[in-house]
Amino acid sequence: MPVRRYRIEGRVQGVGYRYFTRRTARRLGIKGLVRNLPDGTVEAIAEGSAEALEAMEHWLRAGPPGSRVDGVKTTEETRLVEDEDFVIA
To answer: What domain range is 63 assigned to?
Structure first.
């Protein structure tokens, strides 16, 4: 299964972005994690089918109400995600 790391920039902390991401990932059958970073961005690491990861990126770019996504940087990863669920770290 492919693994992608997403770094989301904008107004994404303090607006429910991590909970939105977890809900979306679980709905899409993706496992991994999401966390706030000290620089104000949010990072998500996701493992799932290529189709599910494409859908995930679409939703990450939209974000929840109250957020403002200025950009999403995506990188391919080679390591497997250790969690069997999608968690907030």
So the answer is: 3-88
Q: Which of 5, 18, 22, 35 is catalytic?
A: 18
Tell me, yes or no, if the pTM score tops 0.85: yes
Catalytic residue among 5, 11, 35, 36: 36
* Burial grade of 88 (CB within 10 A; 0-12, 13-18, 19 or more): exposed
- Residues 7-46 pLDDT 10s: 999 999 999 999 999 999 999 999 999 999 999 999 999 9
What CATH number does residue 77 fall under?
3.30.70.100
Respond yes or no: is residue 36 known to be catalytic. Answer: yes
Tell me how many domains the chain contains. 1
